Amino acid sequence: MAEAISSSAASAPGRLFAADALLRAGWARDVLIEWNASGELSAVTAGRRPDGAPRAAGPVIPGMPNLHSHAFQRAFAGLTEFRGATEDSFWSWRTLMYRFAARVSPAQVEAIATGLYAEMLEAGYTAVCEFHYLHHDSDGLPYADDAELALALLRAARRTGIGFTLLPVLYQASGFGGLAPNEGQRRFVRSTESMLRLLERLRPLCAAQGARLGLAPHSLRAVPADGLREALAGLRAIDAAAPVHIHIAEQTAEVEACLAWSGQRPVAWLLDHAEVDARWCLVHATHMDADEYRRAAASGAVAGLCPTTEANLGDGIFDLPAWRAAQGVWGIGSDSHVCVNAAEELLMLEYSQRLATRQRNVAADGAQAQIATAMTLAAVRGGAQASGRAVAGLQAGQQADFVVLDAAHPALAGLPAADMLSSHVFASHRSNAIDAVWVAGRPRVVAGRHLLHDSATAAFVAARTQLLDTP
To answer: What are phi and psi of 216, to 5 degrees?
Structure first.
């Protein structure tokens, strides 16, 4: 079974009949979903008969792209929840993360990522954007194969069958103005030239696997202006359509430091100094003023929201109404993986808006009054754009990535389809209400479990145990 999962060869054409399916225009009845041998949807047609096609066990919804992941951090999720300073914050958490990052080996990275990606698939994610900044050996020197850790991530994605966007991270400084990197960052640092060489090496490998390759300038504090300009020019020469992701305006201290350095807030500086467009994903973008919300949305960039991580780190609350009023595109990511559950990220995003506005059902829109339906469609659209892949929902020409909800789950049983999705998002996230997950027309999760669940979980636990036992 493991060999069948890891194969990247084309599969046979297929069909699935769904009594209810969430299409890009909304819910539809009696939907026949058909795909070709390349795993691309060839037809999605409502009002059809099964005509011998297998029947889905419940409503079918589009697979969710996870637009922001640091895979290795899953191994210490939950292990930083103790008071270690007078006022713990993102910055004290980051110090603990650096200690962990200093020890993890390539084999452990692969085991952790394999376990994580299988877990993501079980939780309704069908694709992931990996923000990959762990490049070098523990002494900060390159491996004999400079791509070793990137290759470990590609293997993990291939084995589990998750759709993949690899975003090698450019990291050059410890603060605004090009401050020298600190000891905890020694495994991250690359010159712009070495980054562009890495991208050239990885490009054919990603293409052979059906993965997408982009670039992630870590943040304005970690990439000086000259490095950012040169890296973007080099990326354009390699692939002018490649996705670009950046951490930005996550913390108020970051905003204050950027103002002190440049006289501008981070998002405003970026918009003035880079050609930000629909290729870009502004990860977090939590702390923007009204003009930044307006300008960033108008650029076409995706706001990459990671609600459970942002809550865990005490980042603050993104102003979703302001972003939507400016017609901004957004998607969700699991970031540090304190939570690996697509439905729970949507729940946390909506609940954070309710706490901020003291209103309910904030994410509803004119086309979809049901919150879960509106948020799912919006997050799939934004996640697909951020991933740079054709995974934007149940429509011909997109990849056959979809999730089948379990209509027999106690939280869903007996409800209309739209209410099943609502209960999936708001009432069932502590127990899995997913029956099956398909990626590129292949079943990856069956009866709620990934086909590599046992072996991937065991390897993950072993890697974490080794790390915790390492001085």
So the answer is: -130, 90
- Per-residue pLDDT band for 86 (boundaries 50, 70, 90) equals low
Q: Where are the domains of the chain?
A: 2-62+399-451, 64-387
For the record, the structure tokens of 411 come out as 């939280």
Burial of 267 (0-12, 13-18, 19+ CB in 10 A): buried
Question: Which residues lie closer than 8 Å to 99 by C-beta, 6 or more apart?
Answer: 184
Q: Is the dihedral of CA 328, 333, 335, 336 positive or negative?
A: positive
CA distances from 190 to 104, 273, 286 (A): 19, 22, 27
- State how far the Cα of 387 lies from the Cα of 151, in Å rounded to an integer: 18
Name the CA radius of gyration of the chain, rounded. 21
> In whole angstroms, what is the distance from residue 73 CA to residue 79 CA?
10
Q: Which of 53, 55, 56 is nearest to 404 (CA)?
A: 56
pLDDT at 203: 98
In the predicted model, is pLDDT for residue 231 greater than 90?
A: yes
Mean pLDDT of 315-337: 97
Q: Which residues are catalytic?
A: 284, 335
Residue 10: the pLDDT is: 53
Q: How far apart are CA 179 and CA 280, in angstroms?
A: 25
Buried/exposed code over 406-419 (b: 16+ C-beta within 10 A; e: otherwise): bbebebbeeeebbb
CA pair distance 434, 426, nearest whole angstrom? 14
Residue range 372-398: mean pLDDT, rounded: 98
User: Which alpha helices (DSSP H) does 210-341 contain, by range?
Assistant: 225-238, 252-262, 266-273, 290-299, 307-312, 320-325
Please state the pTM of the whole predicted model: 0.95
Do 2-62+399-451 and 64-387 share a fold? no
Other beta carbons less than 10 A from residue 272's beta carbon = 11
CA dihedral sign, ordered 408, 340, 169, 161: negative
Query: 3-state DSSP helix/strand/coil percent for the chain, to nearest 5?
Result: 40, 20, 40
Report, at the CATH architecture level, how domain 64-387 is classified: Alpha-Beta Barrel (3.20)
Per-residue pLDDT of 51-62, as tens digits, reads 999 999 999 999
Which residue reads 């999730």 in tokens?
A: 403
Instruction: Give the Å distances, CA to CA, from 281 to 36, 120, 223, 297.
Output: 30, 20, 16, 11
CATH 2.60.40.1220, applies to 2-62+399-451: no
